[in-house]
Automatic annotation (TrEMBL):
GO molecular function annotation: kinase activity; metal ion binding; phosphoenolpyruvate-protein phosphotransferase activity
EC number annotated for this UniProt entry: 2.7.3.9
Enzyme class, first EC level, given as a word: transferase
Protein name: phosphoenolpyruvate--protein phosphotransferase
Coiled coil start-end: 209-236
Domain GAF: 17-164
SMART domains per record: GAF (SM00065)
C-alpha cells in the first residue's frame, strides 16, 4: 500500500493543471483500490458548500455543477464531524441526500474522508461501490493517509491560484490577494524584485502558449546552446577528472538528442504548453524514472538530469550560464526572497527599499526582526507561493495584517494610497513630540533604550532620543567574517560604540550564536539547534573565545564608565558563577595593563538574560550575584510555548500575548521589585503598542527596542494613564487565549485614540 500511495502522490504532484491532477487522482484510486467510483469535493466557505471538482464513476457533467451544503448529505456530515465515514449502504443512511445530476443510484457502499489542512476542512474525498459492503480498515486507512497528503497540495494550489497562473495572457485587471504573517507593521507599495532569481525546473510556474511553432524553435535553439556549453565543459576538464566522471556528459548528450528528450518536449508543446513548461514536465518525469531505479549509481543520475534541465531552461529564458538574473532594483522595490538575510539587506540600496516579502519565516524570525529594526513593512511565510509570481509585479503590502495584493486594480490602489497618506500624517504627529520626555499622563517616567547590532549598516547612527543602548548584539561582527574577529578588531569596534555617547549606559551581550544564528566558519550540526549548543553554553565550553571577547570589551571601556555586560541563554546559577569567574580573570589582566599606562578601568555591571523558563524559578538566587536582569521576550515566548519561532507551520502558536507568557512577565516584574534588581525588557514586545501598555502596568520602567520604534513607544507612553493600564492588565490576566487578549488590548488602544498604531489608517 505504501508503494502505491507514494506512486499516486508523486504522479499527481507532477501535473501542473490542478483540475487535471485531481482527475488523475480519482482515476488512480479506482485502479489501486478496485472500486467503482472516486470523487473529490472542495470546500467553498464563501458559499458554504462543497463543490464536486473531479470524479471517476459519477456523471462527468456534474463536475463544477453540483454543490452540497456544509450541513447537507453524507459529504456535509464528514465535513461537520471532521472524521471518516464508512457505510455499507449509503442510500439507507438518514443523512443521505439524492442528487440526480451525479447519477449515483446504483451505488451503495460509501467511504469518505475529510481533507484537512491546519485545522481547516478543505474538502472531502469519497469512494463508492455498487454492491453493499463495508470498506476494510486498510482501505479506510489508505484513504485517510492520502487525504492528509492531498490537503497540502490543495492548500498550495489555493495559495497559488493555479488557474490564473496557467493563463498565457493575464488580463490587465487581474488581481491576486495573498495572505502571509505580519512581520513588520506599516504599508508599502512598489514593484516586486527578486535579487537573485534562480532558474529552477522545480520552481518554474507552468504556462500555456498558443504559438506552438515559436515555442518549438525556442526549445531547439536552447538545446543547441546547451550542447555547445557541454562541449566546452567537457573539453575543459579533459585530463583533470577520471573518464567515468566525464562519461556523465554522455548522459547529457543522449538526453539532449532530438529522439529522446526533444521528442517528448515537443509533444507537450503541441498539447498547448510553452517550452519551459514542457521541458519541466518531461525532465521531472525523467527524474522520477531515475530515482525509481534499483542501481544506486543510476539513482544518483537524477541529480544530473535536473542540472541538465536547469541549463536548458536557462538558455530558453535567455539567462546567463550562472543561472542568475542580476539587474538594478526599481526605484520603489518590494524585496522578494525565499528568506531575507542580513547580507541581502546590507547590499540592498536602502533608498529603494519600500517593503519585504519573505517566503519563509514567521513574525519573530530573524528577517522580521531586522525589518522592524529598519522600519520597513514586511510580510513573512508565503511559503506556498511560487516566488516568480511576485517578480516585476506591482505589489501592495500591509504589514499590519499580512496581506499582499499583486497587480491591484485602480480602486484598490486609490484606497491603499489613502491609507498610506493617513499613516504618514500619524508619523508626523508622533515626530512632533520627539523631544518631549517619556512620561505617562499621571507623571510616571519611563526610560527608553535601543537594541542595536542586528545590522551594523542599518543601526550605525545613534538615536539622540534614547537613554542608552539596552542590548548590543555582538554576534553580527562575528557572523560577517570568514574567521573569528581578533581581540584588537573587537576593541576598535566596541571603543567606537562606547565613545559615541560616553554618558549613556551601553549594554553588550556576549556572543550569542547557535540556533538561527550560525557562524559560517564554525558550523554546528544539531537536530534541534534551539535546544542545543548556543549562547553561554558555547562560550563557556570555549573560554578562549569568551575571554578574548571580554578582554576586548574591557579594553574598549578603559577610561569610560558606561559598559555593562549581559550573559545570554542562562539556565543555572552555576553558569553565571563560571562566567563571572572568567570576567574577573580578564578584568585583573586588563586592569594591570591599564595601570601600567596610567589609565583606569571600572568593573562593568554584570547582568543576565531571562529567556529560558528555568530561570524564573531561580530569581532569588540570581538576584544575589548579578547587577541587573534583562528579559528576552522573544526566546522566553519560544521556550515557554515550545514553538520554533522560525517555523511557519506553527507561527500562529507563537504569541507573546499568550496567558502563560504574560504571567511569566508579571512574575519577573514582581520578583525584580522584591529583590531590588533593575530589570529591562529588550525583546520585541517592548516595541509593540499593546506590549508597552501591559509591561508598564506590570511595573517595568525600562524598555529597550529598535531605533525605529522608539519615538512611537514614547508617544504611547505620553498618551496612557498607568491606572487605566493596570485595570486593563487585571482584566487581561483573567483571559484564556491570546486572541481575546489581543482584542482587549486593541479595544483599549482604540478607546484612547491610539488605534492607528495597530492597523492601517488613523
Amino acid at each position: 500500500m505504501l508503494t502505491t500511495l507514494k506512486r499516486i502522490v508523486q504522479e499527481v504532484n507532477q501535473i501542473p493543471v490542478f483540475d487535471d491532477a485531481l482527475s488523475c487522482l480519482a482515476n488512480r484510486l479506482i485502479e489501486a483500490l478496485k472500486v467503482d467510483s472516486c470523487s473529490i469535493y472542495l470546500a467553498d466557505y464563501e458559499h458554504q458548500h462543497f463543490m464536486l471538482v473531479a470524479t471517476e464513476g459519477l456523471a462527468k457533467s456534474a463536475v463544477g455543477q453540483v454543490s452540497i451544503g456544509f450541513s447537507e448529505g453524507l459529504v456535509g456530515l464528514i465535513g461537520q464531524r471532521e472524521e471518516p465515514l464508512n457505510i455499507s449502504d449509503a442510500q439507507r443512511h438518514p443523512r443521505f441526500k439524492h442528487y440526480p445530476e451525479v447519477q449515483e443510484d446504483n451505488y451503495h457502499a460509501f467511504l469518505g474522508a475529510p481533507i484537512i489542512h491546519q485545522r481547516k476542512v478543505l474538502g472531502v474525498l469519497t469512494l463508492q461501490q455498487q454492491h453493499k459492503r463495508r470498506f476494510s480498515e486498510d482501505e479506510e486507512a489508505f484513504l485517510v493517509t492520502l487525504a492528509m497528503q492531498l490537503a497540502v497540495e490543495i492548500a498550495n494550489a489555493k495559495a497559488r491560484g493555479s488557474i490564473n497562473l496557467l493563463q498565457e495572457n493575464i488580463p490587465k485587471d487581474w488581481q491576486k490577494s495573498l495572505k502571509g504573517v505580519p512581520g513588520s507593521s506599516g504599508l508599502a507599495s512598489g514593484v516586486g524584485y527578486l535579487q537573485n532569481m534562480m532558474v529552477s525546473i522545480r520552481n518554474h510556474v507552468p504556462k500555456r502558449s498558443k504559438n506552438k511553432q515559436t515555442q518549438v524553435q525556442n526549445y531547439r535553439q536552447a538545446v543547441k546552446q546547451t550542447q555547445a556549453d557541454m562541449a566546452i565543459l567537457s573539453e575543459r576538464i579533459q585530463g583533470e577528472v577520471p573518464d567515468d566522471v566525464r562519461a556523465i556528459f554522455q548522459l547529457y548528450y543522449h538526453l539532449l538528442d532530438a529522439n529522446s528528450l526533444g521528442r517528448d518536449v515537443e509533444k507537450e508543446i503541441k498539447l498547448g504548453w510553452d517550452a519551459p513548461t514542457s521541458l519541466k514536465m518531461v525532465v521531472e518525469n525523467y527524474i522520477r524514472q531515475f530515482q525509481a531505479m534499483n542501481d544506486p549509481y543510476m539513482r544518483e543520475r537524477a541529480v544530473d538530469v535536473e542540472d541538465m534541465g536547469n541549463r536548458v531552461l536557462a538558455n530558453i529564458m535567455g539567462i546567463s550560464a550562472k543561472n542568475l538574473v542580476k539587474r538594478e532594483p526599481p526605484e520603489h522595490s518590494i524585496l522578494v526572497a525565499e528568506e531575507v538575510t542580513a547580507v541581502m539587506l546590507a547590499e540592498f540600496p536602502s533608498e529603494k527599499l519600500m517593503g519585504i516579502v519573505s517566503m519563509r519565516g514567521s513574525n519573530n524570525s530573524h528577517a522580521a526582526i531586522m525589518a522592524r529594526a529598519m522600519g520597513v513593512p514586511a510580510v513573512m511565510g508565503l511559503s506556498n507561493i511560487p516566488i516568480a509570481l511576485l517578480n516585476e509585479k506591482e505589489i501592495l503590502l500591509d504589514g499590519y495584517t499580512g496581506d499582499v495584493i499583486v497587480s491591484p486594480n485602480a480602486t484598490i490602489r486609490r484606497e491603499f494610497d489613502q491609507l498610506v497618506l493617513e499613516e504618514q500624517l500619524l508619523s508626523e504627529r508622533i515626530r512632533s513630540e520627539d523631544t518631549l520626555p517619556a512620561i505617562t499622563t499621571d507623571n510616571c517616567e519611563i526610560r527608553l533604550f535601543t537594541n542595536a547590532g542586528l545590522s551594523l549598516e542599518a543601526e550605525k547612527n545613534d538615536n539622540p532620543f534614547s537613554d542608552g543602548v539596552g542590548l548590543f548584539r555582538t554576534e553580527i561582527p562575528f557572523m560577517m567574517r570568514e574567521r573569528f574577529p581578533t581581540e584588537q578588531e573587537q576593541v576598535e569596534l566596541y571603543r567606537t560604540l562606547l565613545e559615541a555617547e560616553p554618558n549613556k549606559p551601553f549594554t553588550m551581550r556576549t556572543l550569542d550564536v547557535g540556533g538561527d544564528k550560525p557562524l559560517p566558519y564554525f558550523p554546528i550540526s544539531e537536530e534541534n539547534p534551539f535546544l542545543g549548543w548556543r549562547g553561554i553554553r558555547l562560550t563557556l565550553d570555549h573560554p578562549e573565545i569568551f575571554l578574548v571577547q571580554i578582554r576586548a570589551m574591557l579594553r574598549a571601556s578603559i577610561g569610560l564608565d558606561n559598559l555593562s555586560i549581559m550573559l545570554p541563554m542562562i539556565t543555572s546559577v552555576s553558569e553565571v558563577s563560571e562566567a563571572k569567574r572568567l570576567i574577573r580573570q580578564a578584568f585583573y589582566e586588563v586592569e594591570e595593563e591599564a595601570q601600567e599606562h596610567g589609565e583606569s578601568l571600572q568593573m562593568p555591571k554584570i547582568g543576565v538574560m531571562l529567556e529560558v523558563p528555568a530561570v524564573l524559578y531561580q530569581l532569588p538566587q540570581l538576584s544575589k550575584i548579578v547587577d541587573f536582569f534583562s528579559v528576552g521576550s522573544n526566546d522566553l515566548t519560544q521556550y515557554l510555548l515550545a514553538v520554533d519561532r522560525n517555523n511557519s507551520r506553527v507561527a500562529e502558536l507563537y504569541d507573546s500575548y499568550h496567558p502563560a507568557v504574560l504571567s511569566a512577565l508579571h512574575t519577573i516584574a514582581k520578583h525584580s521589585e522584591l529583590f531590588q534588581v533593575p530589570v529591562t525588557v529588550c525583546g520585541e514586545l517592548a516595541g509593540e503598542p499593546g506590549g508597552v501598555v501591559l509591561l508598564l502596568a506590570m511595573g517595568y520602567r525600562k524598555l529597550s527596542m529598535n531605533n525605529h520604534n522608539l519615538l512611537k513607544v514614547k508617544w504611547i507612553i505620553r498618551n496612557i494613564h498607568l491606572g487605566s493600564a493596570e485595570q486593563l492588565l487585571a482584566k487581561v490576566l483573567t483571559l484564556n487565549n491570546p486572541q481575546d487578549v489581543r482584542e482587549e488590548i486593541n479595544n483599549y488602544l482604540e478607546s484612547i485614540g491610539l488605534g492607528g498604531l495597530v492597523r492601517a489608517g488613523i
